[in-house]
């Protein structure tokens, strides 16, 4: 996978969401690089990893991320996952707990879709429709998803413009990876892994999020030991774009609470 590193200090790995790449975190990276060695990756099929033969599946991706952390001097990292990246980060924490100092979920949930015992999730038909539309209108489908990500933000126009510029900044994501990613969002349920997490977790939500509700994140946080929930009232699905300084401060404070 394509990897970029910047800054000095303890390792902080950022994992991006569906259709994006590690470059989407640029405002957050600038706010963090003075305190951390910030590592960003492009997931398989995205950005610089567009031609990667690694499947966009939680097990292989989690193992690849663990190998990446293993290259760090401490062989441990604080791991933060946004949206779909939260599933990969959770799988990494569950499969390789010795590599993860702390888990931060940025507008992410262990289960994205509704269920009889998970009412705060999204209607599964939303992801099914995106999958059906990808083949007919690739760019239009991506744009509609970006609009959902930006909706609710106090800076909607600015964030939507930023996301539209970012999504193709490293080339088009591979259609195969987009379909695999939608499948992960539709089918994954990692709630059973949360009670066994050995590390602290931080759950950062946007109150106006149209994709992952704060209620779902609060319910997930309640399943994990040593968890903390934090909400930004003026943010949507990308709180690290709405308030990068505040989110960076929250991650810095959280890192101080995690065992070295």
Distance between the termini: 26 Å
Number of beta-strand segments: 7
Quote the beta fraction.
15-25%
Give the biggest beta sheet. Answer: 7 strands, mixed
Mean pLDDT: 93
Low-confidence stretches: none
Could you say which overall geometry the principal axes of the C-alpha atoms support? globular
**How would you spell out the order of helices and strands?**
EEHEHEHEHHHHEHEHH
Structural class: alpha/beta
Biggest sheet, spatial arrangement of strands: 1-3-2-4-5-6-7
Rg over CA atoms, rounded to whole Å, is 16 Å
So how many helices?
10
Helix content: 40-55%
What does this structure look like?
The chain is 42% helix and 16% strand. The protein is α/β, with parallel strands linked by helices and 260 residues long. The protein is globular. It has a 7-stranded mixed sheet, sandwiched between helices. The longest helix is centred in the last third of the chain and has 14 residues, at 244-257. Helix 1 crosses helix 10, helix 4 packs antiparallel against helix 7 and helix 5 runs antiparallel to helix 6 (156-167).
Write a brief caption for the model:
With 260 residues, this protein is an alpha/beta fold.
């Amino acid at each position: 996978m394509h990897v970029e590193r910047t800054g000095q200090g303890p390792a902080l790995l950022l994992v991006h969401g569906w259709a994006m790449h590690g470059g989407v975190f640029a405002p957050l990276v600038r706010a963090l690089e003075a305190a951390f060695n910030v590592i960003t990756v492009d997931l398989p099929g995205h950005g610089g990893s567009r031609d990667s033969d690694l499947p966009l599946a939680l097990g292989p991706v989690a193992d690849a991320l663990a190998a990446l952390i293993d290259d760090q001097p401490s062989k441990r990292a604080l791991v933060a996952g946004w949206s779909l990246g939260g599933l990969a980060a959770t799988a990494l924490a569950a499969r390789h707990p010795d590599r993860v100092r702390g888990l931060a979920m940025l507008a992410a949930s262990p289960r994205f879709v509704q269920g009889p015992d998970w009412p705060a999730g999204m209607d599964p038909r939303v992801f099914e429709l995106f999958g059906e539309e990808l083949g007919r209108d690739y760019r239009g489908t991506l744009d509609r998803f970006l609009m959902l990500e930006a909706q609710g933000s106090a800076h909607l126009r600015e964030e939507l413009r930023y996301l539209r510029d970012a999504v193709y900044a490293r080339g088009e994501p591979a259609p195969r990876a987009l379909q695999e990613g939608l499948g992960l969002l539709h089918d994954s349920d990692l709630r059973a892994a949360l009670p066994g997490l050995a590390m602290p977790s931080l759950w950062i939500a946007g109150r106006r999020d149209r994709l992952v509700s704060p209620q779902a994140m609060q319910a997930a946080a309640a399943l994990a030991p040593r968890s903390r929930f934090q909400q930004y009232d003026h943010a949507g699905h990308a709180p690290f774009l709405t308030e990068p300084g505040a989110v960076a401060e929250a991650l810095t404070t959280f890192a101080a609470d995690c065992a070295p």
